[in-house]
């Protein structure tokens, strides 16, 4: 999973249900062609495909992509090693993914609370 020290490098995931490949590329700091390649290599990535074969990623996909990015770019794993790591620790990572989602939701809710508590002009 993404280390806490690396969370500042990547933008916060917006509260949307679906993301285009361009949005995911920006959110995860990788190129679109890299995402398409990773879809072939990692069975955990399965974006919804709609008309015109357009890809729509969900929040869980974005988190998985960030995890793959961290394994490959930050921790130095090969594609094969990253596949093994994801497969062997999928159940354990579900918990940490949920923890990351909860932390992010808390941050977003605190931002909303700040907006609501701001003085009216």
From TrEMBL:
SMART domains for this protein: HTH_MERR
- Enumerate the spans annotated as HTH merR-type domain: 18-88
Q: Which InterPro entries match?
A: DNA-bd_dom_put_sf, MerR-type_HTH_dom, MerR_fam
Q: Which UniProt keywords apply?
A: DNA-binding
User: Would the keyword DNA-binding turn up in this protein's UniProt record?
Assistant: yes
Identify a single GO molecular function assigned to this protein.
DNA binding
Segments crossing the lipid bilayer: none
Ranges in coiled-coil conformation: none
Q: Could you name the domain of life of the organism this protein comes from?
A: Bacteria
Identification of the protein by name? MerR family transcriptional regulator
Upper lineage ranks?
Bacteria, Pseudomonadati, Pseudomonadota, Gammaproteobacteria, Pseudomonadales
